[in-house]
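task queued by scheduler; priority normal; single chain, no ligands, no partner chains; default sampling; output format set to structure tokens
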Amino acid sequence: MKQSHMQSAAQRRASLSRRHFLRGVGACLALPALESFFPWKLVAAENAGGGLALTASGAPLRSAFIFFPNGAIQPNWWPDTPGADFKFNSTLQPLADCRDYVRVLGGLDHLNAIGGVDGGGDHARGNAVFLTGMHIKKSATDLHDGISIDQLMAAKVGRATRFPSLELTCDDARKTGACDAGYSCAYQYNLSWSSPNTPVPAEFNPRSVFERLFGPGEHGQRVQNNQIRQKAQQSVLDFVMDDARDMQKRLTGTDRDKLDQYFTSVREVEARIQRAEQFGPAPDPLIETPDGVPSDQTEYVEIMYELMALAFQTDSTRIATFCLAHDGDNRSFSQIGVLEGHHDLSHHENNPERIAKVAKIDEWYAEKFAGFLKKLQSMKDVDGQSVLHNSMIVYGGGNSDGNRHTHTNLPIVLAGGGGGTLSPASYERFGSLPACNLFLSLADRMGVQGLERFGDSTGRLAKI
């Protein structure tokens, strides 16, 4: 009987497709489990001690930053007239169902992404400057950017969740070598930076993301598997520390300094284990673990969006970034009938046929983003509002006109309700202001106190 049960389980696993995973996430999200995942006592204590980002109702406030590549076809992106009565143009039309939570923001710039004396490399700068607003050093080996806004937020609110931040990508990220006109690949393939010379690598494998969030194995096994893994990690750390302390007696000078640095790294691992333990067992969604990287780009993007939504709903993290593709990405979109590479098409030289194809890609990206917003809107948060109401989602790119590689009037949308702190839906034109003014305003809402400037900011952004 046991053998037959195991065979049937194996057959069920074999029959599961990625579409089953997506449908399974939807079923999981219908369960009223979020309240039990939310660490009320811990948050209340920490909020009293230093001010974590909570909404007026006491629900967590979340922020996500989503990047799309190669700019956008400008006439198709921007609404015709500003104000609350704006009408979506063709590219952003998929967002119409979430209109009440959408603000289209015009006139925001990243002047530090302009090459100047550094010359070419607009794609590398488009990525690297997007969340830092800093001028990056042109080098393939000597990195220098700035701390990204998501990591500043994570430093403030990350202690209240199992994971301080979540970094996702649909690129198989390159970390070394030169990629764009002499800039390091690390610039072009990373959005998030924990220090001026340290990018935070993004995860591209949905299976790895899921197991990081909820543990390995099938539903019903993940809690026990996580506990076994934590005990094994702690046992290894105890052994390593005992061995290292014994070795320390025989070291002098430089080697002892190196060992001290090593001890620091080990203690950081211990702290992460203790963090996981203080939150209790991780959530165990009633869904199958994703197989890995889908071959179909539509399923790939949808699954990563689903994972980010699930991470927000279970309060596994409150800060996320998602790089849909690096700037300069040249993949084709056969699923919508566009067989040429995206980057090649973006240099359209005003050819109407090529412009129409790029606009089609832009709309496809907006459609996937709209699906993510609808998912968040369908989720009930701990206060009875939707998760979208209690979120701030920036969607945009580091190039505005892909044909000319411009970095002014960037295509940016701000979605979500910010827990009731964001203005109603509108299309706002800001003339020409740093995009970092927007990030500074969002950082205020996330409880990042005492931040007078960020990147090249000149002040807070009004009308959001």
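post-processing summary
- Confidence is low (pLDDT under 50) at residues 1-16, 25-50.
- The longest strand covers residues 426-434.
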